[in-house]
Design goal:
The complex is a heterodimer.
Chain A lengths: L4 H31 L11 H25 L16 H47 L1
Chain B lengths: L1 H18 L8 H26 L8 H29 L4 H8 L1
Helix pairs in contact in B: 1-2, 1-3, 2-3
The chains are: A mainly alpha, B mainly alpha.
Chain lengths: 135, 103
């Protein structure tokens, strides 16, 4: 009915966090970049990079699911935009679906992203160890 | 069928990302994440529907399967279109910059 709204809200929050992280990282790394102090041993996955993965997962899923809801006539291009808003019974059912299916979707995508980050972090650790061994 | 088609698209996009040296230039990671995000969300939808309908979920009519397949193909096309828009906005190869500077 409108389960994609929960991941959409998360996507908005993650986008805001991504913008903040990017600004913060630029402020920190810009002087080091100017001095040419960033080398191979400084390889790391920044928070903006990690958040960009979560953003792609969430926005991609939300876009395609929103189209699926449009296909099934659950989303319409005129107010109230969600056909489930037409009656109180349908609205209650929609809110229940958002609380169950929607929240599960958001949690699953975030957990998948967490595993992705953990694997990437382990890979970086391995690369750093091999670089340190070579030096 | 929509879930199945999206998972296949996600696997193909991931293989393209892994095997292509120009993965960053073409932003192939974003394409695969778009499909994986949608696949995960539809998988959750499937779990909830299966919990409600049990084996009845798999005994769909031919018209339902056809409709779902058509939706799956359309969704893959929309994913590709979204990726293309992202690629043109980011323009990692600077194609648009060069074109504009020429004029």
């Amino acid at each position: 009915m409108a389960c994609f709204i929960v991941p959409a809200v998360e996507a908005v929050a993650v986008t805001a966090a991504f913008v903040a992280a990017k600004k913060h990282e630029q402020k920190i790394t810009a002087p080091a970049h100017e001095r040419g102090e960033i080398g191979e041993k400084d390889v790391k996955i920044t928070w903006s990079k990690r958040l960009s993965w979560l953003m792609a997962l969430l926005w991609g899923g939300v876009l395609l699911l929103a189209f699926e809801h449009f296909w099934h006539g659950e989303v319409v291009p005129f107010p109230p935009f969600l056909t489930a808003m037409a009656s109180p019974e349908d609205t209650a059912e929609m809110l229940h679906e958002m609380a169950t299916v929607g929240v599960s979707m958001a949690v699953t995508v975030t957990a998948f992203w967490g595993v992705m980050c953990a694997i990437a972090q382990a890979k970086v650790k391995k690369i750093k160890a091999s670089v340190a061994k070579e030096n | 069928m929509t879930l199945l088609i999206t998972i296949i698209a996600a696997i193909i996009a991931s293989v393209c990302w892994y095997s292509n040296e120009k993965r960053d230039e073409y932003k192939l990671g974003v394409l695969s994440l778009i499909y994986w995000g949608a696949s995960l969300m539809w998988f959750i939808d499937f779990v909830f529907e299966y919990a409600e309908l049990k084996t009845e979920y798999f005994s769909q009519s031919f018209s339902d399967i056809l409709n779902d397949s058509l939706l799956g193909v359309t969704v893959v096309a929309i994913g590709l279109a979204a990726w293309l828009v992202y690629l043109f906005i980011k323009d990692p190869k600077g194609v648009f910059n060069r074109k504009l500077l020429k004029k």
